[in-house]
Amino acid sequence: MFEPFMIRAVLAGLGIAMVAGPLGCFVVWRRMAYFGDTLSHAGLMGIALGLILGVDPTIGVLTTCILIGALLFSLQFQRRVPTDTLLGVLSHSALALGLIAVSTMQNIRFDLTAYLFGDILAITDADLAWIYGGGFIVLGALALLWRRLIALTVNEDISRAEGYAGTGVRLGFTVLIAITVAIAMKIVGILLVTALLIIPPAAARRLSRGPEAMTLVTIAVGSAATIAGISASFAWDFPSGAAIVAAAAAIFALSLAAGGLMRLRA
Amino acid sequence: MTGTDLSPAASLSGAVMKRNGRLVLDHVDLTVGRGEIVTVIGPNGAGKSTLLRAVLGLETLDEGTLRLAPGLRLAYLPQRYQLDHALPLSVRRILTLTHTPAEERLQAMLEELNIGRLLDTSALRLSGGELQRVMLARALLREPDLLVLDEPTQNVDATGALEIYQVVARQRARTGCSVLLVSHDLNVVMAATDRVYCLNGHICCSGKPTDVGRDRAFVALFGEAAGQTLAPYTHHHDHVHAPDGTVEGGHHDHHHDHPHGHHHPH
After folding, report:
1. Residue A36 sits in which domain range?
2. Which architecture does CATH list for B6-73+145-266?
3. I need a labelling partner for A185 at 20 to 30 A (CA). Which of A8, A205, A261, B183 fits?
Protein backbone atom coordinates (compact mmCIF):
# COMPACT_ATOMS: atom_id res chain seq x y z
CA MET A 1 0.00 0.00 0.00
CA PHE A 2 2.59 2.55 1.08
CA GLU A 3 4.82 2.69 -1.90
CA PRO A 4 7.26 5.61 -2.07
CA PHE A 5 5.43 7.27 -4.95
CA MET A 6 2.21 7.20 -2.94
CA ILE A 7 3.88 8.74 0.10
CA ARG A 8 5.42 11.42 -2.11
CA ALA A 9 2.00 12.11 -3.63
CA VAL A 10 0.35 12.54 -0.23
CA LEU A 11 3.20 14.71 1.08
CA ALA A 12 3.03 16.88 -2.04
CA GLY A 13 -0.75 17.20 -1.82
CA LEU A 14 -0.70 18.15 1.85
CA GLY A 15 2.11 20.64 1.26
CA ILE A 16 0.11 22.30 -1.50
CA ALA A 17 -3.05 22.32 0.63
CA MET A 18 -1.20 24.14 3.40
CA VAL A 19 0.07 26.84 1.05
CA ALA A 20 -2.94 27.12 -1.24
CA GLY A 21 -5.32 27.38 1.74
CA PRO A 22 -4.30 30.78 3.16
CA LEU A 23 -3.48 32.19 -0.29
CA GLY A 24 -6.78 30.91 -1.65
CA CYS A 25 -8.64 32.66 1.18
CA PHE A 26 -7.20 35.97 0.05
CA VAL A 27 -7.99 35.15 -3.58
CA VAL A 28 -11.63 34.67 -2.53
CA TRP A 29 -11.70 37.70 -0.20
CA ARG A 30 -10.07 39.95 -2.77
CA ARG A 31 -12.12 38.51 -5.66
CA MET A 32 -9.09 37.52 -7.65
CA ALA A 33 -10.25 34.19 -9.10
CA TYR A 34 -9.73 35.37 -12.64
CA PHE A 35 -6.32 36.66 -11.67
CA GLY A 36 -5.30 33.16 -10.55
CA ASP A 37 -6.66 31.72 -13.80
CA THR A 38 -4.58 34.11 -15.87
CA LEU A 39 -1.42 33.26 -13.94
CA SER A 40 -1.91 29.52 -14.25
CA HIS A 41 -2.76 29.69 -17.96
CA ALA A 42 0.38 31.73 -18.51
CA GLY A 43 2.22 28.89 -16.78
CA LEU A 44 2.09 26.83 -19.96
CA MET A 45 4.20 29.48 -21.67
CA GLY A 46 6.61 29.17 -18.76
CA ILE A 47 6.89 25.44 -19.31
CA ALA A 48 7.60 26.00 -23.00
CA LEU A 49 10.16 28.63 -22.08
CA GLY A 50 11.87 26.27 -19.66
CA LEU A 51 12.03 23.53 -22.28
CA ILE A 52 13.37 25.87 -24.96
CA LEU A 53 16.04 27.28 -22.66
CA GLY A 54 16.82 23.86 -21.25
CA VAL A 55 16.17 24.80 -17.62
CA ASP A 56 13.89 23.13 -15.10
CA PRO A 57 10.29 23.78 -16.28
CA THR A 58 9.39 24.76 -12.71
CA ILE A 59 11.87 27.66 -12.94
CA GLY A 60 10.32 28.65 -16.28
CA VAL A 61 6.83 28.57 -14.75
CA LEU A 62 7.90 30.46 -11.66
CA THR A 63 9.60 33.19 -13.69
CA THR A 64 6.69 33.53 -16.11
CA CYS A 65 4.09 33.63 -13.33
CA ILE A 66 5.97 36.32 -11.43
CA LEU A 67 6.45 38.39 -14.60
CA ILE A 68 2.80 38.04 -15.62
CA GLY A 69 1.77 38.83 -12.04
CA ALA A 70 3.82 42.03 -12.13
CA LEU A 71 2.32 42.89 -15.54
CA LEU A 72 -1.23 42.36 -14.28
CA PHE A 73 -0.43 44.38 -11.21
CA SER A 74 0.67 47.36 -13.29
CA LEU A 75 -2.30 46.98 -15.64
CA GLN A 76 -4.74 47.34 -12.74
CA PHE A 77 -4.08 51.05 -12.75
CA GLN A 78 -5.19 51.59 -16.35
CA ARG A 79 -8.77 52.58 -17.03
CA ARG A 80 -9.13 51.88 -20.76
CA VAL A 81 -10.28 48.26 -20.52
CA PRO A 82 -12.35 46.88 -17.59
CA THR A 83 -10.13 44.69 -15.40
CA ASP A 84 -12.13 41.47 -15.75
CA THR A 85 -12.27 41.85 -19.53
CA LEU A 86 -8.53 42.41 -19.61
CA LEU A 87 -7.90 39.34 -17.45
CA GLY A 88 -10.18 37.30 -19.71
CA VAL A 89 -8.23 38.42 -22.76
CA LEU A 90 -4.83 37.76 -21.17
CA SER A 91 -5.83 34.48 -19.56
CA HIS A 92 -6.99 32.79 -22.71
CA SER A 93 -4.44 34.32 -25.03
CA ALA A 94 -1.70 33.15 -22.65
CA LEU A 95 -3.13 29.64 -22.78
CA ALA A 96 -3.39 29.76 -26.59
CA LEU A 97 0.18 31.03 -26.96
CA GLY A 98 1.41 28.37 -24.56
CA LEU A 99 -0.32 25.62 -26.54
CA ILE A 100 1.20 26.92 -29.77
CA ALA A 101 4.64 27.14 -28.18
CA VAL A 102 4.62 23.56 -26.89
CA SER A 103 3.16 22.25 -30.19
CA THR A 104 6.25 23.52 -32.01
CA MET A 105 8.46 21.35 -29.82
CA GLN A 106 7.56 17.97 -31.25
CA ASN A 107 11.14 16.81 -30.94
CA ILE A 108 11.07 17.12 -27.15
CA ARG A 109 9.51 14.33 -25.14
CA PHE A 110 6.62 16.12 -23.56
CA ASP A 111 3.46 15.07 -21.80
CA LEU A 112 1.04 17.94 -22.31
CA THR A 113 -1.74 16.21 -20.38
CA ALA A 114 0.41 16.00 -17.27
CA TYR A 115 0.85 19.77 -17.33
CA LEU A 116 -2.77 20.54 -18.15
CA PHE A 117 -4.28 18.22 -15.56
CA GLY A 118 -1.42 17.49 -13.20
CA ASP A 119 0.20 14.21 -12.35
CA ILE A 120 0.59 13.86 -8.62
CA LEU A 121 1.71 10.23 -8.93
CA ALA A 122 4.79 11.32 -10.84
CA ILE A 123 6.03 13.65 -8.09
CA THR A 124 9.79 13.45 -7.57
CA ASP A 125 11.92 14.34 -4.56
CA ALA A 126 12.93 17.51 -6.41
CA ASP A 127 9.26 18.45 -6.78
CA LEU A 128 8.76 17.92 -3.06
CA ALA A 129 11.70 20.20 -2.39
CA TRP A 130 10.08 22.87 -4.57
CA ILE A 131 6.73 22.50 -2.84
CA TYR A 132 8.08 22.60 0.72
CA GLY A 133 10.84 25.15 0.07
CA GLY A 134 8.57 27.48 -1.90
CA GLY A 135 5.71 26.89 0.50
CA PHE A 136 7.84 27.80 3.48
CA ILE A 137 8.87 31.08 1.86
CA VAL A 138 5.30 31.91 0.79
CA LEU A 139 3.77 31.17 4.19
CA GLY A 140 6.51 33.05 6.04
CA ALA A 141 6.03 36.13 3.87
CA LEU A 142 2.26 35.86 4.18
CA ALA A 143 2.51 35.71 7.97
CA LEU A 144 4.51 38.95 7.91
CA LEU A 145 2.00 40.66 5.62
CA TRP A 146 -1.09 39.14 7.23
CA ARG A 147 -2.55 42.03 9.24
CA ARG A 148 -1.78 44.58 6.59
CA LEU A 149 -3.24 42.43 3.88
CA ILE A 150 -6.45 41.95 5.88
CA ALA A 151 -6.70 45.72 6.37
CA LEU A 152 -6.08 46.29 2.66
CA THR A 153 -8.78 43.75 1.81
CA VAL A 154 -11.36 45.24 4.16
CA ASN A 155 -10.79 48.76 2.87
CA GLU A 156 -7.98 49.85 0.63
CA ASP A 157 -8.65 53.60 0.98
CA ILE A 158 -8.49 53.51 4.77
CA SER A 159 -5.34 51.38 4.75
CA ARG A 160 -3.61 53.67 2.29
CA ALA A 161 -4.79 56.94 3.86
CA GLU A 162 -3.64 55.83 7.31
CA GLY A 163 -0.29 54.71 5.91
CA TYR A 164 -0.86 51.14 7.07
CA ALA A 165 -0.81 49.19 3.83
CA GLY A 166 -0.62 50.14 0.19
CA THR A 167 0.91 49.31 -3.14
CA GLY A 168 3.89 47.48 -1.64
CA VAL A 169 1.69 45.03 0.25
CA ARG A 170 -0.44 44.45 -2.84
CA LEU A 171 2.57 43.81 -5.03
CA GLY A 172 4.00 41.45 -2.42
CA PHE A 173 0.77 39.50 -2.40
CA THR A 174 0.76 39.28 -6.20
CA VAL A 175 4.21 37.69 -6.12
CA LEU A 176 3.09 35.21 -3.45
CA ILE A 177 0.11 34.18 -5.58
CA ALA A 178 2.39 33.74 -8.59
CA ILE A 179 4.71 31.43 -6.62
CA THR A 180 1.78 29.47 -5.21
CA VAL A 181 0.24 28.94 -8.64
CA ALA A 182 3.60 27.85 -10.02
CA ILE A 183 4.08 25.18 -7.36
CA ALA A 184 0.45 24.06 -7.14
CA MET A 185 0.43 23.42 -10.87
CA LYS A 186 2.49 20.29 -10.23
CA ILE A 187 -0.41 18.63 -8.53
CA VAL A 188 -3.59 19.62 -10.25
CA GLY A 189 -2.34 21.04 -13.51
CA ILE A 190 -2.79 24.36 -15.24
CA LEU A 191 -6.52 24.04 -15.83
CA LEU A 192 -7.43 23.19 -12.23
CA VAL A 193 -5.09 25.35 -10.15
CA THR A 194 -7.68 28.05 -9.57
CA ALA A 195 -10.14 25.42 -8.37
CA LEU A 196 -7.65 24.37 -5.69
CA LEU A 197 -7.34 28.01 -4.60
CA ILE A 198 -11.05 28.80 -4.64
CA ILE A 199 -13.06 25.73 -3.63
CA PRO A 200 -11.58 25.00 -0.16
CA PRO A 201 -12.11 28.60 1.07
CA ALA A 202 -15.59 28.59 -0.42
CA ALA A 203 -16.32 25.46 1.62
CA ALA A 204 -14.73 26.96 4.74
CA ARG A 205 -16.62 30.25 4.56
CA ARG A 206 -19.89 28.92 5.93
CA LEU A 207 -18.16 27.21 8.82
CA SER A 208 -16.03 30.12 10.09
CA ARG A 209 -16.52 33.40 11.90
CA GLY A 210 -13.16 35.10 11.50
CA PRO A 211 -10.42 35.29 8.88
CA GLU A 212 -7.94 33.15 10.82
CA ALA A 213 -10.52 30.48 11.62
CA MET A 214 -11.53 30.42 7.97
CA THR A 215 -7.90 29.92 6.95
CA LEU A 216 -7.47 26.93 9.26
CA VAL A 217 -10.73 25.36 8.08
CA THR A 218 -9.62 25.95 4.49
CA ILE A 219 -6.38 24.06 5.11
CA ALA A 220 -8.35 21.21 6.70
CA VAL A 221 -10.75 21.08 3.74
CA GLY A 222 -7.87 21.18 1.26
CA SER A 223 -6.03 18.40 3.09
CA ALA A 224 -9.13 16.21 3.30
CA ALA A 225 -9.85 16.76 -0.40
CA THR A 226 -6.25 15.91 -1.25
CA ILE A 227 -6.25 12.65 0.67
CA ALA A 228 -9.70 11.68 -0.66
CA GLY A 229 -8.70 12.59 -4.21
CA ILE A 230 -5.40 10.69 -4.12
CA SER A 231 -7.12 7.65 -2.63
CA ALA A 232 -9.74 7.70 -5.38
CA SER A 233 -6.98 8.11 -7.90
CA PHE A 234 -5.19 5.01 -6.55
CA ALA A 235 -8.35 2.97 -6.24
CA TRP A 236 -10.04 3.75 -9.53
CA ASP A 237 -7.23 5.22 -11.59
CA PHE A 238 -8.90 8.64 -11.82
CA PRO A 239 -6.72 11.57 -12.93
CA SER A 240 -5.33 12.78 -9.59
CA GLY A 241 -5.86 16.53 -10.03
CA ALA A 242 -9.43 16.07 -11.16
CA ALA A 243 -10.14 13.68 -8.28
CA ILE A 244 -8.81 16.22 -5.74
CA VAL A 245 -10.88 19.03 -7.19
CA ALA A 246 -13.99 16.83 -7.33
CA ALA A 247 -13.48 15.85 -3.67
CA ALA A 248 -13.14 19.53 -2.72
CA ALA A 249 -16.34 20.30 -4.62
CA ALA A 250 -18.13 17.54 -2.71
CA ILE A 251 -16.96 19.05 0.60
CA PHE A 252 -18.17 22.43 -0.61
CA ALA A 253 -21.64 20.98 -1.28
CA LEU A 254 -21.65 19.43 2.21
CA SER A 255 -20.60 22.77 3.73
CA LEU A 256 -23.62 24.46 2.19
CA ALA A 257 -25.86 21.95 3.95
CA ALA A 258 -23.90 22.24 7.23
CA GLY A 259 -23.98 26.05 7.03
CA GLY A 260 -27.73 25.90 6.53
CA LEU A 261 -28.11 23.67 9.59
CA MET A 262 -25.90 25.96 11.69
CA ARG A 263 -28.04 28.91 10.72
CA LEU A 264 -31.25 27.05 11.56
CA ARG A 265 -29.91 26.31 15.02
CA ALA A 266 -28.54 29.83 15.63
CA MET B 1 2.96 66.35 18.07
CA THR B 2 3.41 69.24 20.39
CA GLY B 3 0.87 71.94 21.00
CA THR B 4 3.46 74.61 20.45
CA ASP B 5 3.84 73.76 16.78
CA LEU B 6 1.81 76.36 14.97
CA SER B 7 2.11 75.06 11.43
CA PRO B 8 -1.26 73.80 10.19
CA ALA B 9 -2.05 70.11 10.37
CA ALA B 10 -2.74 70.04 6.65
CA SER B 11 -2.96 72.50 3.81
CA LEU B 12 -3.62 72.48 0.11
CA SER B 13 -2.59 75.37 -2.05
CA GLY B 14 -3.60 75.96 -5.64
CA ALA B 15 -4.88 72.39 -5.90
CA VAL B 16 -6.02 71.50 -9.41
CA MET B 17 -7.35 68.08 -10.33
CA LYS B 18 -8.70 66.98 -13.68
CA ARG B 19 -10.47 63.70 -14.21
CA ASN B 20 -11.66 62.55 -17.63
CA GLY B 21 -11.18 66.03 -19.05
CA ARG B 22 -13.31 67.54 -16.32
CA LEU B 23 -11.97 70.03 -13.84
CA VAL B 24 -12.82 68.52 -10.44
CA LEU B 25 -10.79 70.83 -8.24
CA ASP B 26 -10.09 74.32 -9.50
CA HIS B 27 -7.27 76.08 -7.65
CA VAL B 28 -8.43 75.12 -4.21
CA ASP B 29 -6.72 76.51 -1.13
CA LEU B 30 -7.59 74.85 2.14
CA THR B 31 -6.02 74.96 5.57
CA VAL B 32 -6.79 72.81 8.57
CA GLY B 33 -5.18 74.33 11.65
CA ARG B 34 -4.13 72.40 14.72
CA GLY B 35 -7.18 71.54 16.81
CA GLU B 36 -9.51 73.09 14.28
CA ILE B 37 -12.79 71.57 13.04
CA VAL B 38 -13.17 72.39 9.36
CA THR B 39 -16.31 71.51 7.42
CA VAL B 40 -16.56 71.33 3.64
CA ILE B 41 -20.01 71.83 2.19
CA GLY B 42 -21.19 72.03 -1.39
CA PRO B 43 -23.70 70.61 -3.88
CA ASN B 44 -23.48 67.08 -5.26
CA GLY B 45 -20.54 66.67 -7.59
CA ALA B 46 -18.79 69.69 -6.10
CA GLY B 47 -15.66 67.63 -5.46
CA LYS B 48 -15.97 67.41 -1.67
CA SER B 49 -14.96 63.77 -1.36
CA THR B 50 -12.21 64.28 -3.91
CA LEU B 51 -10.89 67.19 -1.88
CA LEU B 52 -10.71 65.00 1.22
CA ARG B 53 -9.03 62.24 -0.78
CA ALA B 54 -6.48 64.74 -2.04
CA VAL B 55 -5.64 65.77 1.53
CA LEU B 56 -5.22 62.08 2.41
CA GLY B 57 -2.90 61.52 -0.54
CA LEU B 58 -5.33 59.08 -2.15
CA GLU B 59 -5.61 61.24 -5.26
CA THR B 60 -2.72 62.94 -6.97
CA LEU B 61 -2.93 66.61 -7.80
CA ASP B 62 -2.37 67.84 -11.34
CA GLU B 63 -1.20 71.16 -9.96
CA GLY B 64 -0.68 72.68 -6.55
CA THR B 65 0.78 71.29 -3.37
CA LEU B 66 -0.33 69.30 -0.37
CA ARG B 67 1.46 69.90 2.91
CA LEU B 68 0.97 67.68 5.91
CA ALA B 69 2.63 68.35 9.25
CA PRO B 70 5.56 65.94 9.68
CA GLY B 71 4.56 62.76 11.49
CA LEU B 72 0.88 63.61 11.20
CA ARG B 73 -1.26 60.67 12.26
CA LEU B 74 -4.34 60.34 10.07
CA ALA B 75 -7.63 58.55 10.44
CA TYR B 76 -10.20 58.30 7.66
CA LEU B 77 -13.89 57.52 7.50
CA PRO B 78 -14.68 57.16 3.80
CA GLN B 79 -18.04 58.03 2.32
CA ARG B 80 -18.42 54.61 0.80
CA TYR B 81 -17.23 51.35 2.19
CA GLN B 82 -18.72 47.99 1.63
CA LEU B 83 -18.04 44.88 3.63
CA ASP B 84 -17.80 41.78 1.54
CA HIS B 85 -19.62 38.68 2.73
CA ALA B 86 -16.73 36.57 1.49
CA LEU B 87 -14.65 37.74 4.48
CA PRO B 88 -16.03 36.94 7.94
CA LEU B 89 -15.30 39.84 10.30
CA SER B 90 -16.31 40.76 13.82
CA VAL B 91 -16.89 44.35 14.87
CA ARG B 92 -13.80 44.04 17.07
CA ARG B 93 -11.76 43.14 14.02
CA ILE B 94 -12.87 46.27 12.18
CA LEU B 95 -12.08 48.43 15.20
CA THR B 96 -8.53 47.06 15.32
CA LEU B 97 -7.99 47.18 11.56
CA THR B 98 -4.95 49.47 11.37
CA HIS B 99 -4.24 50.03 15.06
CA THR B 100 -4.76 48.17 18.33
CA PRO B 101 -6.36 50.36 21.02
CA ALA B 102 -6.41 49.37 24.70
CA GLU B 103 -9.40 47.20 25.56
CA GLU B 104 -10.94 49.73 27.94
CA ARG B 105 -10.67 52.51 25.37
CA LEU B 106 -12.35 50.28 22.87
CA GLN B 107 -15.28 49.53 25.14
CA ALA B 108 -15.60 53.12 26.32
CA MET B 109 -15.74 54.34 22.71
CA LEU B 110 -18.47 51.90 21.77
CA GLU B 111 -20.47 52.89 24.85
CA GLU B 112 -20.09 56.54 23.89
CA LEU B 113 -21.52 55.76 20.46
CA ASN B 114 -24.27 53.52 21.89
CA ILE B 115 -23.00 50.37 20.20
CA GLY B 116 -21.35 48.69 23.21
CA ARG B 117 -23.37 45.52 22.75
CA LEU B 118 -22.01 45.00 19.24
CA LEU B 119 -18.33 44.47 20.07
CA ASP B 120 -18.18 40.75 19.39
CA THR B 121 -20.93 40.38 16.81
CA SER B 122 -20.39 39.85 13.11
CA ALA B 123 -19.86 43.12 11.27
CA LEU B 124 -21.75 41.67 8.31
CA ARG B 125 -25.02 41.69 10.26
CA LEU B 126 -25.00 45.38 11.21
CA SER B 127 -27.53 47.88 9.93
CA GLY B 128 -26.25 50.83 7.89
CA GLY B 129 -26.40 53.16 10.88
CA GLU B 130 -24.65 50.70 13.19
CA LEU B 131 -21.88 50.09 10.68
CA GLN B 132 -21.46 53.84 10.26
CA ARG B 133 -20.94 54.21 14.03
CA VAL B 134 -18.47 51.32 14.04
CA MET B 135 -16.46 52.90 11.23
CA LEU B 136 -16.47 56.24 13.06
CA ALA B 137 -15.42 54.54 16.32
CA ARG B 138 -12.56 52.87 14.45
CA ALA B 139 -11.31 56.23 13.17
CA LEU B 140 -11.62 57.90 16.59
CA LEU B 141 -9.88 55.01 18.36
CA ARG B 142 -6.84 55.58 16.20
CA GLU B 143 -6.36 58.80 18.20
CA PRO B 144 -5.33 60.69 15.09
CA ASP B 145 -3.84 64.15 14.82
CA LEU B 146 -6.10 64.74 11.83
CA LEU B 147 -9.48 63.07 11.61
CA VAL B 148 -10.95 63.05 8.10
CA LEU B 149 -14.66 62.25 7.97
CA ASP B 150 -16.63 62.00 4.73
CA GLU B 151 -20.31 62.39 5.61
CA PRO B 152 -19.99 60.84 9.07
CA THR B 153 -23.75 60.85 9.68
CA GLN B 154 -24.99 59.12 6.56
CA ASN B 155 -27.51 56.37 7.39
CA VAL B 156 -27.97 57.93 10.82
CA ASP B 157 -31.15 59.72 11.99
CA ALA B 158 -31.19 63.34 13.17
CA THR B 159 -30.72 62.53 16.86
CA GLY B 160 -27.93 60.14 16.00
CA ALA B 161 -26.27 62.81 13.84
CA LEU B 162 -26.25 65.21 16.77
CA GLU B 163 -24.71 62.55 19.04
CA ILE B 164 -22.04 61.80 16.48
CA TYR B 165 -20.97 65.44 16.16
CA GLN B 166 -20.86 65.67 19.96
CA VAL B 167 -18.57 62.66 20.13
CA VAL B 168 -16.32 64.21 17.49
CA ALA B 169 -16.27 67.54 19.33
CA ARG B 170 -15.40 65.76 22.60
CA GLN B 171 -12.56 63.90 20.93
CA ARG B 172 -11.22 67.22 19.68
CA ALA B 173 -11.54 68.76 23.14
CA ARG B 174 -9.83 65.76 24.75
CA THR B 175 -7.00 65.14 22.28
CA GLY B 176 -6.69 68.47 20.50
CA CYS B 177 -6.94 66.75 17.13
CA SER B 178 -7.88 68.55 13.95
CA VAL B 179 -10.99 67.49 12.08
CA LEU B 180 -11.75 67.84 8.37
CA LEU B 181 -15.21 66.74 7.40
CA VAL B 182 -17.79 66.81 4.64
CA SER B 183 -21.37 67.16 5.73
CA HIS B 184 -24.84 67.95 4.51
CA ASP B 185 -26.29 68.53 7.97
CA LEU B 186 -25.81 72.28 7.85
CA ASN B 187 -27.69 73.10 11.02
CA VAL B 188 -26.15 70.45 13.28
CA VAL B 189 -22.59 70.34 12.09
CA MET B 190 -22.05 74.08 12.00
CA ALA B 191 -22.56 74.35 15.74
CA ALA B 192 -19.29 72.51 16.24
CA THR B 193 -17.41 73.90 13.25
CA ASP B 194 -14.64 76.47 13.41
CA ARG B 195 -14.38 77.09 9.72
CA VAL B 196 -16.49 76.30 6.67
CA TYR B 197 -15.35 75.92 3.12
CA CYS B 198 -18.07 76.12 0.54
CA LEU B 199 -16.92 74.14 -2.47
CA ASN B 200 -18.24 73.95 -5.99
CA GLY B 201 -15.17 72.87 -7.93
CA HIS B 202 -13.55 76.04 -6.63
CA ILE B 203 -13.88 77.53 -3.17
CA CYS B 204 -16.91 79.84 -3.35
CA CYS B 205 -16.41 81.22 0.10
CA SER B 206 -14.93 80.26 3.42
CA GLY B 207 -14.89 81.50 6.98
CA LYS B 208 -16.77 81.15 10.21
CA PRO B 209 -20.19 79.52 9.73
CA THR B 210 -22.01 82.76 10.58
CA ASP B 211 -20.06 84.75 8.02
CA VAL B 212 -20.45 82.13 5.32
CA GLY B 213 -24.20 82.04 5.95
CA ARG B 214 -24.35 85.71 4.99
CA ASP B 215 -22.02 85.36 2.04
CA ARG B 216 -23.68 86.05 -1.28
CA ALA B 217 -21.89 83.19 -3.01
CA PHE B 218 -23.21 80.80 -0.38
CA VAL B 219 -26.77 82.07 -0.64
CA ALA B 220 -26.58 81.85 -4.43
CA LEU B 221 -25.51 78.21 -4.18
CA PHE B 222 -27.67 76.98 -1.32
CA GLY B 223 -30.51 79.49 -1.14
CA GLU B 224 -31.67 81.98 1.44
CA ALA B 225 -32.99 79.39 3.89
CA ALA B 226 -29.64 77.62 4.16
CA GLY B 227 -27.91 80.93 4.81
CA GLN B 228 -30.30 81.65 7.63
CA THR B 229 -29.70 78.17 9.00
CA LEU B 230 -26.09 79.08 9.54
CA ALA B 231 -26.25 82.72 10.53
CA PRO B 232 -28.76 82.91 13.40
CA TYR B 233 -28.04 79.55 14.90
CA THR B 234 -24.77 80.33 16.54
CA HIS B 235 -23.48 82.43 19.32
CA HIS B 236 -19.89 83.06 20.22
CA HIS B 237 -17.62 81.63 22.81
CA ASP B 238 -13.92 82.09 22.97
CA HIS B 239 -13.35 78.79 24.62
CA VAL B 240 -13.90 75.08 24.21
CA HIS B 241 -16.03 72.91 26.45
CA ALA B 242 -14.38 69.80 27.79
CA PRO B 243 -16.49 66.65 28.12
CA ASP B 244 -17.28 67.36 31.76
CA GLY B 245 -18.56 70.81 30.91
CA THR B 246 -15.58 72.70 32.21
CA VAL B 247 -14.16 75.48 30.11
CA GLU B 248 -10.79 75.05 28.54
CA GLY B 249 -8.69 77.78 27.02
CA GLY B 250 -7.70 77.61 23.37
CA HIS B 251 -5.12 74.91 22.77
CA HIS B 252 -3.05 77.07 20.53
CA ASP B 253 -2.07 80.62 19.96
CA HIS B 254 -4.65 81.10 17.29
CA HIS B 255 -7.87 82.46 18.71
CA HIS B 256 -10.77 80.05 19.02
CA ASP B 257 -13.56 82.44 18.35
CA HIS B 258 -15.77 79.71 17.10
CA PRO B 259 -19.48 79.25 17.29
CA HIS B 260 -20.59 76.50 19.57
CA GLY B 261 -23.90 74.71 19.96
CA HIS B 262 -25.87 74.29 23.13
CA HIS B 263 -25.51 70.58 23.32
CA HIS B 264 -22.85 70.04 25.91
CA PRO B 265 -22.68 66.50 27.18
CA HIS B 266 -22.51 66.11 30.92
Report:
1. 4-191
2. 3-Layer(aba) Sandwich (3.40)
3. A205
